[in-house]
Amino acid sequence: MVVASLLATVAFQVATTPPGGVWQDDYKVDANGNPVKEPHMAGTSIMAHIQRMAYGEFMIFNPLAFLSSLSIILLLLSGFPIERRRWMWTQMVIMWLAIMGSAAQHIAGDTRGMLKDVTDVSAVCWLCLMGVVFMGNVVRLCVWVLRKWGYLKKKEKKNSDEDDEDKHEQV
């Protein structure tokens, strides 16, 4: 809940104050009263004006992070039985989307100079880590499906009586 709230706060703040800031004035005509080639209005994003593609990517990932975070908060507050595996899995996937969206918006927002190079290397490392996590979850899902369909032996559960006896023998 805390992480989801933090991600929602960051995504909201970044949407209201985008990278590069916003124009502080209207610029529609030059000093002579002639229309300018590239006008802008106060309150619009500077990044949207200068780097359209990067801003487009940024504005795809920012709502993804924001709405995923709000979804996690809503699911946790709604009273669904979070002890059940399906709800935990659903929340894990949505939280994964929120974190990926937040990371992707950060990567899309850093588009110039040496910081861009550092961000690119960090992004590759991040994607490798996410690939490992994703593949681990795919393997877990495949094992679960194979056990459910009977192709793999189900886990053996220990009896609580045996556990109690083992504990008493150790003492």
Automatic annotation (TrEMBL):
Give all residue intervals belonging to the PGG domain: 1-109
Question: What is the source species?
Answer: Eucalyptus grandis (Flooded gum)
Q: Where are the transmembrane segments?
A: 60-80, 92-109, 121-146
- Report the locations given in the UniProt record: Membrane
* GO CC terms, sorted: membrane
Q: Is Transcription included in the keywords of this UniProt record? A: no
* Pfam families referenced in this protein's UniProt entry, alphabetically: PGG
**Family annotation (InterPro entries):** PGG_dom
First-listed, main subcellular location of the protein, grouped into a coarse class: membrane
Signal peptide limits: 1-16
Q: Which UniProt keywords apply?
A: ANK repeat, Membrane, Repeat, Signal, Transmembrane, Transmembrane helix
According to Swiss-Prot or TrEMBL, what is its membrane topology? Multi-pass membrane protein
Q: Does the keyword ATP-binding apply?
A: no
Q: What is this protein called?
A: PGG domain-containing protein
PANTHER family per record: PGG DOMAIN-CONTAINING PROTEIN (PTHR24186:SF37), PROTEIN PHOSPHATASE 1 REGULATORY SUBUNIT (PTHR24186)
